[in-house]
Design goal:
Length: 531
Amino acid sequence: MRIVMVEASSRSSGCSATRQTTAYWGASVRVLNLSLALRDYQVDAINTLARNYGQGIKRQILAMPTGSGKTETAAGIFQRVIEAGIMPPRTVPYFIVDRTVLCQQAAERFERMGFNVGIVQGDNTTPRQGNEDVIVASVQSIRARYKARPVPDDMGMAIIDEAHIIHRRHAQIIKTLDNILVVGLSATPLREGLGRLFQGVVKGPTIAECIERGWLVPFRCYGTQKPNLDGVEVTRGDYNQRQLGQRMQTITGDIVSSWKALGENRQTIVFAVDIAHAGDIAEDFRAEGIAAAVIHHKTPPDDIADLFGRFESGELRILCSVTKLSTGFDSPITSCAIMARPTLSEALYMQMAGRVCRPYPGKQTALLLDHAGNVERFGRPDDFRVPGSLDDGELASRNARKRCELPEMRTCPECTYMVPRAERECPECGLTMGKPNVVVVKDGELVDLDSSADPANKSRCDEALSRKQFYAELLGFARERGYKRGWAWHKYHTRYGERPAFGSAKPLEPSLATRRWIKSRQIAHARARKL
């Protein structure tokens, strides 16, 4: 790559003007001894940022999926910038986080990579030693400590984490640092007005590409019909939280029964509307003997640390949250998310879904149990694509056009798996589905679309699973669970409306399709017991 000239003029923060000649970010002026191994797409992203910077594009968004290694990529950017010497003298790069609780987390990760790290965050602020490679700071502490000017004098560049969450001080920092590099990191750069602060977006791999390469685990999505939200007002682009909380208190569905049937006893996080809603859901789980707790913005930091530790150890199975877990929560052991909060924000939906797709030993899939209609509203998480340009004030129309291009989703009437509307066969249970039907949803219930409700769906395709084989697999399931043979007889009759005529059938190992069908019946049975 060509040699570029970097002109660093005087800034309102007080740094003196300097002029320096340097090679692009690959040239070594100072070498850091780091433990850092970057993936190819991370290196590509850094190279693109460097190329854009050489062309005068200094304020850039780097869009990468949750779990794809944004912090590691940030470390790679710091390494290249420091080693190339493109910052003004006596300055240091800053990593700016949105929440004070994330400061220590980021600092520890950079230290493990080999950086000398300073911290600017309330009482945890470290005295400057002069040998720091990186400063990790909360935007709240920058605002509190530097009231007379927007940025510290020694800020030579900035990476803003979770750049879709922009405070006023963020904007002041970006506008002040007009001649040095500013990179915003985000999985969902959809916020209105980002295009007025940043000059462009560098796109990393898609979620689907990360899944294909094994960097993330694939999604399995189950859902219900959308809850009836007629009359719930929209405030600042999303449902009014107070009204939504009142509505969802009565339209909770059978969240616990669904989890017991489909959740596979996974470490699970629940996204609720408000604190009362989260508390009710947690109490429902505890009533069934399942360890659950609530976490929200009023939870003391020490209690948060204790809850996270108990969750990681498996002592807690369920964490119910309002918004506390939608950003910055990094727990690869989590493999199931229950969406009990409807939202009109695609960014919030993707942030929630992204909490469960990080790989972990033995983890094969990320499970979404959607009681809020979000998957149907926005599509599967792996359908998400970052827009080619940042919003400059026309976010709603752009996202509306984008959503029109996504495959519409519907719920399989047999196993509740979310299926693209154009598909005619459920990939989970093999049910051959007819054209989508208009379904009347009864408020307060989690809808089980019984296949017998529509004659077109009553029959099972013989090629998907023969009736004799299905009955034999029911016998196998009964033997596995210690049920009597009559249990299989009744389940067969429930499905086909006739007696099984296979007296000589031998038990077979239940297939995934059969297990999914049994789980769907368990949901209906559990719900009926509560009515």
